[in-house]
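re: that chain from earlier
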Amino acid sequence: MTDLPTLAHQHFVRRHFLKLAAGGAAVSVAALWGLSLPGQAQRKKAGPAEVPLEELMKPGPLPELVLGNVDAPITVVEYASMTCSHCATFHNNVLPALKQKYIDTGKVRLVFREFPLDPLAAGASRLARCAGGEKTFPLISALFQTQEAWAFGRGDPKPELFKVAKQAGFTQESFDKCLADQKLFDDINAVRTRGAETFGVSSTPTFFINGKKLAGASLDDFEKAFAPILKS
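^ sequence. v structure.
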C-alpha cells in the first residue's frame, strides 16, 4: 500500500507537475497544489473496518466509473492514485484475472474512485475523466502500464503523459484544456476528501467489498473475501 505522501515527496512531484501548467493561464500554482492532504494525526487513524454499503455508494460530485453489472452480488470500491505503484501492480497483474473470472461473469462490479496522492496523479485522473465513455478505463489501464515513464521518469512528465493520452484521441489542445479544468480538479479532490474523511482511506489502493475494507490486494485476498458472499 502507498501511504499519504511525505512532504519531501510532495515537493518533488510538485516541482515536476508545475511544468504541466506552463502556458495554461487557467491553472494557477495554488490550484495545482490545492489538494488538501489530511494531517499527520489523521494519517495514523486506521478508519472503520466496515461502512454501510448504502453510505459508501451515495452519489458524489462525479459519475461513478464502473466495470461490471449493476446487479452483481458483490460491489468492490477501489480508491486509487494514478502515481501509486501498488495500484499499478493491482491493475496490471490482478485486475485482468478478476475481470475475467468475476466481473465479466456478472458476479462482481468494480467501482473505481480517484484518491490522488499528489498533483501529478490528479492530472492523470483528469485525463482519464476527460477521455470519457468507453475510453476512460482503457486510458486508466494504459496510464498504469506506462506509469514508470510518466510518473517516475526524469524531467518534464508532460510529453510522456501526452504520448499515452494520444491513444485515447487527445490532441495537444484537448490535452492542455483538460489539465486546466479547475472544476474537474475540484470534483476529483472532493471524491478524495470524502474517502479520507468519511471512510478513513489513508493509503492506496484501498478496497471495500460490500462495504468491508479488504486487507490485501492479491487475487487470493479477493477470492477469500468473495467466497462466503457467493455461497450465500
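The chain has twelve helices and seven strands.
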